[in-house]
Q: What sequence folds into this?
């Protein structure tokens, strides 16, 4: 379905309806899908759809007036549709209601962080974790979120300086290779990085212990076993990793 087809039934509606509908289209029908959009992206989508008043529309103002149907994510003026907004669009356009997302709270927590991530790799891992949560693929979500978290810790450790970083790694792993760039962490086990992060003052003892528990869960989910974490376990894992790393 094109944007023109989707927005046609609401083309003469208020600007608030139009921006919410545009966000819905971006999330569920755009190729590739976009969970959050800037005002300029929303305006471009509406112009492409042939909305006559889009060129003169103050999209940013319309978004600001559209709570609780939309909410701001990240510090860069990026907006996403809320569950309330989705239900409103579905009612207006006669779209059959979708099944509730099993881990809706966790999806919302991660979605609010995605736009603020400057590293494309970290953002990609978080987006993949969100997609897994939306279809109740909990083991995969655990693995992808950990990948984004460990990449963030690697970058933070490098930011402390190569000399103190390598000294910390050697303290816990005498066979550690020298790390000069983030790609070199491919030869560093995550458990050594967590110990080094503690040595560098990035995390305290309690946080390190919590992340070690998270790493254990990641390993149980990432290896071919019969283990399947429950929703509550994954929610606690996400809360811990997000709270400490991001």
A:
């Amino acid at each position: 379905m094109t944007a023109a087809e989707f927005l046609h039934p609401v083309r003469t509606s208020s600007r608030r309806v139009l921006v919410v509908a545009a966000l819905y289209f971006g999330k569920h029908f755009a190729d590739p899908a976009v969970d959050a959009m800037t005002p300029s992206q929303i305006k471009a989508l509406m112009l492409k759809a042939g909305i006559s008043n889009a060129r003169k529309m103050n999209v940013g103002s319309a978004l600001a007036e559209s709570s609780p149907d939309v909410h701001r994510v990240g510090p860069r003026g990026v907006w996403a549709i809320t569950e309330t907004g989705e239900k409103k669009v579905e009612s207006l356009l006669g779209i059959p209601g979708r099944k509730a997302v099993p881990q809706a709270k966790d999806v919302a927590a991660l979605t609010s962080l995605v736009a603020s991530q400057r590293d494309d790799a970290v953002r990609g891992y978080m987006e993949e974790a969100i997609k897994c949560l939306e279809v109740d693929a909990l083991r995969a979500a655990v693995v992808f979120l950990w990948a984004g978290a460990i990449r963030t810790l690697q970058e933070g450790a490098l930011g402390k300086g190569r000399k103190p970083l390598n000294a910390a790694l050697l303290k816990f792993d005498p066979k550690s290779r020298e790390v000069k760039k983030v790609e070199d962490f491919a030869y560093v086990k995550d458990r050594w990085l967590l110990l080094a992060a503690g040595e560098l003052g990035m995390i305290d003892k309690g946080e390190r212990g919590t992340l070690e528990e998270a790493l254990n869960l990641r390993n149980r989910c990432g290896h071919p076993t019969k283990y399947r974490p429950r929703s509550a376990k994954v929610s606690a894992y996400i809360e811990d990793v997000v709270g400490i790393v991001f």
User: Anything to note?
Assistant: Residues 138-158 form the longest helix (21 residues). The chain has two domains: 3-93, 104-245.
